[in-house]
Amino acid sequence: MGYMTxxxxxxxxxxxxxVLSVIRKADIDIPTLCYHxxxxxxxxxxxxxxxxxxxxxxxxxxERPRDGMVIYTxxxxxxxxxxxxxxxxxxxxxxxxTTCIKSGECHxxxxxxxMGVTSIGYENKKTQYPIDMSSPAIVRDPNKCILCGDCVRMxxxxxxxxxxxxxxxxxxxxxxxxxxKTIAETDCVNCGQCRAVCPTGAISINxxxxxxxxxxxxxxxxxxAQIAPAVRVAVGDxxxxxxxxxxxxxxxxxxxRMGFDxxxxxxxxxxxxxxxxxxxxxxxxxxxxxxxxxxxxxxxxVSYCESHYPELVDHISTCRSPMQMxxxxxxxxxxxxxxxxxxxxxxxxxxxxxxxxxEILRGESKTDGKQDVDYVLTTTELITMIKKTxxxxxxxxxxxxxxxxGIGSGAGIIFGNTGGVTEAVLRRLTDGHNRSDMDRIxxxxxxxxxxxKELTFPYKxxxxxxxxxxxxxxxxxxxxxxxxxxxxxxxxxxxxxxxxCVMGGGQPVxxxxxxRAARAKGLYDTDINTQIKKSNENPLTVTLYNTLLKGKEHxxxxxxxx
Amino acid sequence: MLDAxxxxxxxxxxxxxxxxxxxxxxxxQDIQAEYRYLPPELLNxxxxxxxxxxxxxxxxxxxxENFSFEPKGKYVIKVCxxxxxxxxxxxxxxxxxxxxLKLSKEKATTDDMLFTLETVSCLGACGLAPVxxxxxxxYPGMTPEAATELIKKLRGEADAEN
Lengths: 562, 162
Prior knowledge:
The complex is a heterodimer.
Chain A: E1 2-6, E2 9-13, H1 19-25, E3 49-52, E4 57-59, E5 70-72, H2 76-91, H3 107-114, E6 138-140, H4 150-158, E7 165-167, E8 174-176, H5 193-197, E9 203-205, H6 209-217, E10 221-227, H7 248-258, E11 262-265, H8 266-287, E12 293-294, H9 299-308, H10 322-333, H11 337-340, E13 344-351, H12 355-359, E14 366-367, E15 370-371, E16 375-378, H13 379-389, H14 410-413, H15 420-429, H16 435-446, E17 452-459, E18 462-470, H17 472-483, E19 491-495, H18 513-528, H19 539-546, H20 553-557
Parallel strand pairs in A: 1-5, 10-11, 10-13, 12-19, 13-16, 18-19
Antiparallel strand pairs in A: 1-2, 3-4, 3-5, 6-9, 7-8, 14-15, 17-18
Helix pairs in contact in A: 8-10, 8-15, 15-16
Chain B: H1 4-15, H2 24-35, H3 40-50, H4 54-63, E1 75-80, H5 83-87, H6 90-101, E2 115-120, E3 132-134, E4 137-139, H7 144-161
Parallel strand pairs in B: 1-2
Antiparallel strand pairs in B: 1-3, 3-4
Helix pairs in contact in B: 1-3, 2-3, 3-4, 6-7
């Protein structure tokens, strides 16, 4: 607690852990390349350096705020330093901005522009390294890396994966997997969080944009899309709309105009997941076997469990993820010549997630040997495609998603937030469906940004003990507690990305606390506006179980584990 | 694939330390002392045994010049090219050795696995400049001619041993 003077203005601070946070609280966007409030303080980029009243300069990220401090953030000396730092960083950086995938959302580019770097007087003498395209999810280009270490700390401290780390030193220092392996050869789970924090184009999404354009132009191909819940609240701000605003109606419209034949809602797939997963939970509660039941919606979590806790793989739900359930159902539906119109079906999923790109390639993501989802486009790629068309997204009219798979319940929509799956399952297991029932679940402790949440919920004559985790490091901690006997649960929801899919590795980057909160609220607000709150009350679910799914529930909705 | 004896030896070495993250460097130093290099397979093995990731272990091992993932020769020659040695003409000594041993900056070890030639930035023996070491023995006040003689002598020693 105390007051400090920043550029002549008195600013109060409370529990801020460093001067940088106080400066930002005062609405001064002091530049940083290696600072993320989620990660440990690294102090490498020196861009946040400030000056005190005695002319001493120090990095504000690694200095505690003290009462009575007087600091300046924009003296001529500091401005000169910052510009010089950027020039030196750029001296060893690829300068092909116009052809870089990150152009426009590159933090380094933005800062160079802001600090007035107009020329770089140094030749780039850095050794050029090959680009690693081995992963279906991410691309690693060491020539664009500035060694800020954000990805390393994300992968290690937050996700407990540590597939990449620094290697060598000095001018040869590099962020790489051990022994210069490719990403595909590591334990990388494809969560894409490294990409979400990378301030340059060093880690980017392995895109499928071109092949989708080709399919859209092909008259013999019927392109079917499904849109995940978290996508709809992360597109609008790229077009000047309010962040977190649900723009599903505009997305459906723009995708139709781009040539997608049908645009469906993955929230419906989520409803199917809720039905199957709840059933599975009840079965396991009765038999008492393989508890806790871990959710299976998140492919990065499934990969993590396989490589780090293989003995727990049996505990993961056998349900396919909502995307895969949807994919399998859709393929089955379009088998009929009357429905596919004699055309080849191309199934595309628009997801907030890079790991989904790897998930579709797994053996268990196929039905009768055929991939159920052909391509995954991340939210970021969809935005890129929309921008290419020049269609003024912000002015578009809204359209409703296509039938017969266009209705999702509120329970399906909130899947995009951490706790969403649990909340949806609890709704399914609750008989009532009025506001007080929903509120009771809502206030049971499932909501909120915390990485680990615990709750108990009464069910018939017993209690269901549940935990909700987001972020793989948190999952790791929780599993250790479970293994040591310190904690016991019946149901554990795991999402690999902290705060859930709304903060997935395929979402637009540079999303700060306000954007995060707005995205989560966007989904909860959509739920409020949805009349059908429970997956089992979605009329489409009921119909489907009585028709297409009859006798095929297991084949289409569960993971095919051969 | 390494022979099982390598892993047995490594187990023995690990036992002499604690199974903690902080034991990484002492353990791999001992492995390198044993084999004159650090076999990559063993680094990964140690990482698993002490509970750290492969990437972390590689990060540490690749940081220090001292660790080598390539097998080294019987005689490791380190030519000092610190400031004092440099001004007292260490480079002609190095060039002579490159020439005599048919080595280069890229190829540090002879095919017969007898010699490895490296440069170091300072051996802390500036008063003896120019200086080189063979394994841990220091040779002060070197000249290119003395270097050629030294190689001959070491070759002779090695032949006599066989």
